[in-house]
């Protein structure tokens, strides 16, 4: 009897030890991992000049340019680590952050209630005037055809998958036929070939597209844009609040030092280069 009791006690203690051992192994935060590996990996969809695009005269990591890339470099520097840019489709960027395969993404994200629920979103950062207005691109020949929201009833209007622009189309042009586009470059081709009749884009991005595609114009009708959409935020995996905190500190420092205007100007200059391209990854 005594022996059995001793055995049971020993077993209980062993089990308790195992349980405790499990508990002391605290899950590493994304910030711990970044610091330990010395690398900050970010996802971006380089189809959105002047925020993120490709300079085709360069290769490797150097090819990625734009405002968000300057900002990402700054954040990596702030953390004292090197930056690794993973280019992928806009939709894939968000999935990667959601599942935690990358800790964060800079890709010209607007603040959206749905995103705030599923991700940690940084404080706002200045995005020039890229997103202060949201517009529709149409073929130059159709310029006269579309002057009011009603004119889009039954019309195929494209917007990038999982984007602010897609929600603007479904909210404000509910009679239109919303068409999901993977990458913005594909949307431009679809518009030119007549598969869609309008493409919803941020105005700054639209200006870049028109500069390279003189057969397209901006529609006189524009979306109504509430103030919260005018600046951008960084998307971080839900629960990674330590990373969020340092990212916000880095943003505050960059703003205070006046870098935003400098980066935006540089991005516009880079976007004007012959070798600037918006890359399609979907
Ligand atoms: N600001 C818009 C959004 O959050 C568009 C961003 C598109 N970015 C890109 N890299 N394609 O949905």
Brief summary of the model shown:
It is built from 10 helices and 13 strands. The protein has 282 residues and is α/β, with parallel strands linked by helices. It folds into 2 domains: 39-128 and 229-277, Periplasmic binding protein-like II (D-Maltodextrin-Binding Protein, domain 2), CATH 3.40.190; 134-224, Periplasmic binding protein-like II (D-Maltodextrin-Binding Protein, domain 2), CATH 3.40.190.10.
Question: How would you characterize the largest beta sheet?
Answer: 5 strands, mixed
Unreliably modeled segments: none
Q: What is the rounded distance between the termini?
A: 70 Å
Strand-residue proportion = 15-25%
Structural class: alpha/beta
Number of helices, where a helix is a run of at least 4 consecutive DSSP H or I residues:
10
Overall tally of domains: 2
Tell me the number of strands.
13
What small molecules does the structure contain? arginine
Portion in helices? 40-55%
What is the H/E string? HHEEEHEHEHEEEHEHEHEEHHE
The CATH topology annotation of the largest domain reads as D-Maltodextrin-Binding Protein, domain 2
Q: pLDDT average, as an integer?
A: 92
Give Rg in angstroms. 23 Å
Q: Report the CATH superfamily of the largest domain.
A: Periplasmic binding protein-like II
What topology, given as strand order, has the largest sheet? 4-1-5-12-6
According to CATH, what is the class of the largest domain?
Alpha Beta
Q: So, CATH architecture of the largest domain? A: 3-Layer(aba) Sandwich
Shape label: globular
């Amino acid at each position: 009897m005594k022996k059995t009791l001793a055995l049971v006690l020993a077993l209980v203690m062993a089990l308790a030890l195992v349980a405790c051992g499990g508990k002391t192994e605290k899950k590493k935060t994304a910030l711990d991992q970044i610091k330990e590996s010395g690398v900050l990996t970010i996802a971006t969809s380089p189809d959105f000049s002047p925020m993120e695009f490709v300079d085709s005269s360069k290769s490797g990591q150097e090819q990625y340019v734009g405002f968000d890339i300057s900002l990402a470099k700054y954040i990596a520097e702030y953390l004292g680590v090197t930056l690794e840019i993973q280019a992928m489709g806009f939709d894939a960027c968000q999935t990667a952050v959601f599942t935690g395969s990358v800790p964060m993404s800079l890709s010209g994200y607007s603040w959206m209630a749905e995103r705030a629920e599923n991700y940690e979103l940084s404080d706002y950062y200045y995005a020039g005037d890229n997103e202060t207005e949201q517009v529709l691109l149409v073929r130059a020949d159709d310029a006269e055809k579309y002057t009011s929201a009603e004119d889009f009833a039954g019309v195929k209007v494209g917007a990038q998958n999982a984007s602010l622009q897609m929600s603007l189309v479904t909210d404000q042009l509910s009679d239109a036929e919303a068409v999901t586009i993977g990458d913005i470059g594909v949307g431009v081709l679809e518009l030119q070939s007549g598969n869609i009749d309008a493409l919803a884009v941020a105005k700054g991005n639209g200006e870049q597209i028109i500069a390279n595609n003189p057969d397209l114009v901006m529609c006189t009708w524009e979306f109504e844009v509430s103030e919260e959409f005018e600046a951008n935020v960084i998307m971080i995996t839900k629960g990674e609040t330590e990373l969020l905190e340092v990212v916000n500190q880095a943003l505050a420092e960059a703003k205070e030092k006046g870098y935003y205007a400098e980066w935006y100007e540089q991005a516009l200059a880079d976007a004007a280069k012959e070798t600037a391209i918006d890359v399609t990854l979907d």
